[in-house]
Amino acid sequence: MDRGGVMAYENPGSGCGIDHLQPIRANTANRLATAWPTGWPGPFVPTVNIAESFIRPTGTVLALPDGMRVHTIFASNPHDHLFRYVFCRPKAIAMVLRRTLPKALLQVLDLGSLRYVPSVHINPRLRRREPDLCFTVDALDEGRRVTIYLVIEHQSRRDGRLPWRSLVYMGETWGRYIQDHPQRRGRIPFMVAVLLTQHPARTTPTRLSSILDVSPGLRQVLGTPVELVLHAADFSGSLLRDRKAPAAIRALVELARAFLHAYENPGSLTPTRLAELAPLVDVLLKHDRPDDVEALWVYAISVFDPDSPLHEMITTAISKPAREMYMTLKDELLARGRKLGEAHGRKLGEVHGRAIGKAQAVLEVLEHRRIPVSAVVRKRILATSDELALQRWIERSIVVTKAAELFERPSQGRGGSKTAARGRAAVDAA
After folding, report:
1. Are 98 and 70 contained in the same domain?
2. Which tens digit of pLDDT belongs to each residue from 161-218?
3. CB-based contact 226:234 (threshold 8 Å)
């Protein structure tokens, strides 16, 4: 469906829409750079142009072979965007859950019933909070089926307060559930918290009690007011032996996990591992998943250094069609990065020019009024790029009696009136 000029998936009513429809071609970079709003089936929503949302003239620096450096960045966090793009699919997250959750819990969960749940929360201060992913799943409970919520967090960096943050997300999810189900008084669904970490986040705490600021002895006396334990796993190892998922999903999950695990962990990409990964790209192309390959390439170009073994695999080990897709996308992203960088540079030049003009105006007024300007004050005025501050100094330059008074806060009450009067008198005299 075309919404605002961008092709999107129709909501199939299950999951986030990827497992049930063939992709309608659209730019994957746009979709990765989007945090989708409540009510949409997944990350396939209208977005702004890739050049504005995906590559910006600030952020990660990508070194080019010819020595040119182009600044590129995802809308916010490329790791989170790839994670959500891949694992919002029920069949994909099911592979990870089979590896992460305890066997006893897996025995009572029907992973075939996994359903993606939009999980954006806007608080009264209009601040947005959301877990990385949220699903519901049916659980067998003494002959009946009950709905369990899975709140899934992904970390690319260590977060020392993650258990608290997860508890906040869960509380907000319960609050929305209560609003949406007023008839179920006194009952709220059980929630399971899951943490998936990249290498730099491997020491993220998984228990709320472990971050409480009390000694073990005092904690034993006080007890734990509320406990939260996250079922944690990283992206190491292989899930290719999981035959419960379709071949294309297995290939995508394996490649995404390997890419995410390699971040700041290049030793994970051994020659054996690279040889195992390379054929999986062709599996995706064989199953008509070029968008998935494109998403992986965008992540690799944005995150990994040019000398990463991953780039060597992409340019040497994979098939010609996949390699051509990679090179075309890389050239496109870098060209747009250069274009945006040039535009950003022109804009900065214009802003800098306006600031210099206003700074000179401040100095000229002071000079006209024969007010001495020290080298320190002159340097501060000329070094300021804040146009609002410079405009304020221009207005104050016609009333101050000393140059240093430019930087003082406006006087209050009678003192301020006397200062202003003296300034106006000085202007009249000049």
Report:
1. yes
2. 999 999 988 988 898 889 888 888 788 999 999 999 999 999 999 999 899 998 888 9
3. no
Give domain status of residue 346, yes or no. no
d(CA 54, CA 297) in angstroms, rounded, equals 13
Tens digits of residue pLDDT in 63-121: 323 332 333 333 347 899 999 999 999 999 999 999 999 999 999 999 999 999 886 65
Q: State how far the Cα of 55 lies from the Cα of 74, in Å rounded to an integer.
A: 6
pLDDT in tens, 322-368: 888 888 887 877 676 666 666 666 666 777 778 888 888 889 888 87
- Closest by CA position to 75, among listed 59, 89, 88: 59
Any domain includes 348: no
Contact, 302 vs 265, CB < 8 A?
no
Pairing relation of β-strands 144-155 and 190-197? parallel
What is the Cα 326 distance to its own chain's centre?
23
Q: Examine the domain organization and report whether 272 and 397 are in the same domain.
A: no
> Are 306 and 359 contained in the same domain?
no
Helix or strand or coil: residue 181?
coil
From residue 329, alpha-carbon distances to 50, 51, 167, 248, 336 in Å are 12, 13, 40, 22, 11
At 326, the amino acid letter reads Y
Distance between CA atoms of 92 and 152, rounded to whole angstroms?
A: 13
For the chain, the average pLDDT equals: 76
419 and 378 co-located in one domain: yes
Q: Are residues 127 and 274 in the same domain?
A: yes
Domain span including residue 74? 2-338
Domain termination residue (choose one: 275, 310, 338)? 338
**The two structure tokens encoding residue 256:** 């995404």
| CA gap 45, 86 in Å, rounded | 15
Domain boundary among 307, 338, 369: 338
The predicted structure's pLDDT at residue 107: 95
Give the Cα separation of 225 and 41 in Å (integer). 37
What is the tens place of the pLDDT at every residue in 393-424? 887 887 788 888 888 865 444 344 444 444 44
In the chain, the number of structural domains is: 2
Note whether residue 347 is domain-resident.
no
Contact 277, 254 (CB under 8 A): yes
Would you state the structure tokens that stand for residue 379, as one six-digit string?
């340097």
